[in-house]
Amino acid sequence: MTEIALVADLHGNWPATQAVEQDIIRRGIQRVWCLGDVVGKGPSSDKTFDWARANCEFILRGNWDEGIGRKLFPKDQFYYDQLGPRRMQALVELPMERHCWFSGKKMRLFHGRPILPEPYFVHEEHDLLAPYFEPDFQIVGYGDVHRQGVRLFGYGQLLFNTGSVGNGFGIAMAQYAILRGEPDSREEAALDVNMVMVPYDKAQAICDAEEAGKRGLVNADLFVKEIQTGHYARGEGRASKAL
Questions:
Q1: pLDDT per residue over 193-223, tens digit each?
Q2: Whole domain around residue 103: which residue ranges?
Q3: Which residue from 88, 108, 115, 156 lies 20 to 30 Å from 214 (Cα-Cα)?
Q4: Cβ atoms of residues 144 and 37 within 8 Å
């Protein structure tokens, strides 16, 4: 059987990304897939972007990747300057989703938004999430909401959320998921979905954010509050839709 680490929402938190990398290495996992939002919110988007490009078999495009890559928000100039034109263009070119077979089940992976109209947690009403299993997916996995979860969905269907590496909610740790089974196989086989939470050097992450705030990182204080508490700290407007 093969183990694959699924990471999402790195959000410029370099100490958290390093901690997840070390945990993946310690477990001997050789394959990493990324479900998006490698940039934004935190102070080190260049580092988390470069890490994902170097270590992940593929990266899907998240809402922050889309917004920053397309320069949709003038207040995000900090990220534009930090990433530079080559990384920005690469963000725009990331695919939106991935379809594959895993242990005999057809699986759909995406970030969340921009495919979802708004953030949906795994416990939302059935009718909100059911369309994303159409026409014939048996497993749907995503990120975006920064809160881990696994749910048996309907008959013969599984829904899971990886949580966030760099901005975990609920429990304020670096979060990712592990899939264990037979990738690219249409034959039914054992399948595990495990949620992982990893401690990281939060003091360094806070220091990085505070220093970046002095250099123009918008909402650095809110990012610090979020990684300290595991609670969403953004206000109304753009930020309330950003996670």
A1: 999 999 999 999 999 999 999 999 999 999 9
A2: 2-241
A3: 88
A4: yes
Cβ atoms of 153 and 74 closer than 8 Å: no
SS3 (DSSP) at 222 = helix
Q: Report whether 20 contacts 199 (CB < 8 A).
A: no
Residues 34-45 have pLDDT tens digits of 999 999 999 999
> How far is it, in rounded angstroms, from Cα 224 to Cα 190?
40
d(CA 67, CA 37): 10
The domain spanning residue 97 has which CATH number?
3.60.21.10
- What mean pLDDT value characterizes the chain? 95
Q: Which tokens go with 118?
A: 């708004």
Query: How is 198-218 classified by DSSP, letter by letter?
Result: E---HHHHHHHHHHHHHTT-T
Please report the pLDDT score of residue 154 as a whole number. Answer: 83
CB atoms within 10 A of CB 237: 8
Q: Token pair for residue 221?
A: 């204080």
Q: Are 65 and 39 in contact (CB under 8 A)?
A: yes
Return the closest-CA partner of residue 230 out of 170, 178, 176: 170
In the chain, how many domains are there? 1
- Please give the biggest Cα pair distance in the chain: 54
